[in-house]
Amino acid sequence: MNPSRTVIFLLLALGVVAVSFSGIFIKWSSAPAGVLAMHRLWLTAVLMLPWVWRERQELVRLTGGDWVRLCASGLFLSLHFLGWMSSFHYTSVASAMIFLNLTPLFVAWGAKLVFKEKYPARAFGGMGLALIGTALVVGGDFAWGRTALWGDALSFFGALTVAVHMLLGQNLRQRVSSTVYSFVVFVIASLVLAGYNGFADVPLFAYPAKEWGIFILLAVVPTVFGHLLFNWLLKFVKAVTIQMAILGEPVGTVLLAALLLGESVTLSQVVGGLLSIGGIVWFIRAQVTAEAEGARAAA
C-alpha cells in the first residue's frame, strides 16, 4: 500500500531536517572528509544488520545486473561524500550548499534522458522559485580566489555524483527493497572510502572520543533519518522530487547554525528560506497531482 500524499510530505520534511544537521556535524569535526564519510556509512550499515538479516533471501536473489548497478550507486555515493565534504575545507559553507543544490536540475535532465520522464510545466515554476530562494539563503557568502574556487569545484562534483547515485537508486528501488539497497550501497561506498583513505595514508581509527561521537551522530541523524528514508521513498516518488525536497537543507542548516553555532540570520536568508520552502511545496504538489491525473486517465 502506497503512503498518502500527506505522509510523503511529512517524511520528506523529516528527512530534510535530518540531513540539515550534516553541515553542523561536519563543522564540529576536525577529521578528514574521507574518514567522516567512511565511518558515517559503515556505522549505518552495522545499525541496519538486524533488518538486513530478515531480508537475507533477497540478497541471494539479486542478479548480476543488480550487483553492477548497486556497485555503481555505492561508488557514486562515495564520490559525492568525498567531494562535498572536502569542499568545506576550501570554500564557505554557503558556497558548498548552493552548488550542491544544483542536483535537482541534474537529476531532472538525467531522468529525461535515461528514463524519458516528463514533468508538468507548472512544476518547473516551483523548481525555479526554490532555486532563487536557495540562492538568497546562501548567496551572500561566496568567497573568491583559487582555494575557494577549488572548493566550489568539489561541491559541483558532489552534486553531479549524487545525481547519478539517485538515478541509479530510482531504477533499483523498483525491484530491490530499501533495506537491501541501502545496506549494499552503504557497504560498497564505505569500502571505496576506506581504500581511498588507505591510499592517502589517512589514519582510519586513531581519533578521540569526541570525533567518534560525531561519527555516530552522522550515522544516526542525517544518514538513517535522512538518506535511508529517502532511499525508501524512491519506491513511491521520483528521484527529482526527493532532490527538490532536499533544497530545504540550506534553510535548515542556516537555522541550526543560528541556534547551535551562534551564527546570525539575515533578512535575505529569511526571505530566501520562505521562497525555497514555497517552491519545494509547489513542485511536489504539481508532480504528485500530475501523477494522480495520469493514473486516473489510464484507469
From TrEMBL:
It comes from the Bacteria. It is a multi-pass membrane protein. Belongs to the EamA transporter family. Residues 9-138, 150-283 form the EamA domain. The chain crosses the membrane at residues 32-53, 65-84, 90-111, 123-143, 149-168, 180-200, 212-234, 241-261, 267-284. This is DMT family transporter. It comes from Laceyella putida. It is found in: Endomembrane system. Pfam families: EamA. InterPro entries: EamA_dom, EmrE-like. The keyword Transmembrane applies. Keywords: Membrane, Transmembrane, Transmembrane helix.
